[in-house]
């Protein structure tokens, strides 16, 4: 083996290691190498949880939003503390059994992604929510890593994810609130600016019976992108970024925001999260609708 060949091999190996390190650093390891590992031993839930209780679930078997998960956990913890709510955060999917879920009034999928739960765990969550639980999905909870769970797509997201801008990835855009009388929107300005990674879907979930609470002004950012040498138009026309849905007796809220640390510093977004938690845990409108069917 010549000296030159050895140098080439060392350089190639170095590039491979740097590339793998970069994939891990940006949180894309499981996006490139998706995991289908499901937890089997449930975590120990603190015995001192009191009042309305929130389960924050941030397992990532696909892309991992490190900053969004860390900052989101702190923000939700601060909200829970200020309201006297109990909160337990875990990445252990085995908590999704009926006995443990019944200890919680709300479940938050905080940038949870990928094939997170076994079939039995998915079914337990579905039963719990339909019986009157409350769910909030944040950002990656609505991406395309959940495509293997059709019930989730149909009942909580209502549309098929397409892409998000990459040039630049994070953009400041204008959020316009709808349904101003809805409890989730109380105390939030009708129009506000927000920096985030803006998801697009094939169509608005409005057409599938979801209640839209906020939309994105597509003229306020750049939804037309050049990707891999091609121009991709991510405009939706009707572009929801916050919506709700009744799932039998259960209440659900999804927000596309929450990619970065800074998102969880935004007063309007924090108010949205607090209102959403309050609504899914205390409002009876979904239970009343269900009783009328």
Short description:
This protein is of the alpha/beta class and 293 residues long. The chain has helices spanning 3-25, 29-32, 66-83, 98-101, 119-130, 150-157, 267-282, 285-292, and strands spanning 53-57, 86-90, 106-110, 134-138, 161-163, 171-177, 191-196, 200-201, 211-217, 224-227, 230-233, 240-247, 250-255.
How would you characterize this protein structure?
By secondary structure, this protein is an alpha/beta fold. It is 32% helix and 23% strand. The chain contains eight helices and 13 strands. It has helices at residues 3-25, 29-32, 66-83, 98-101, 119-130, 150-157, 267-282, 285-292, and strands at 53-57, 86-90, 106-110, 134-138, 161-163, 171-177, 191-196, 200-201, 211-217, 224-227, 230-233, 240-247, 250-255. It has a nine-stranded mixed sheet with strand order 2-1-3-4-13-12-9-6-7, sandwiched between helices. Strands 5-8 form a two-stranded antiparallel ribbon. It has a two-stranded antiparallel sheet with strand order 10-11. The longest helix is centred in the N-terminal third of the chain and has 23 residues, at 3-25. Mean pLDDT is 89; it is low at 16-29.
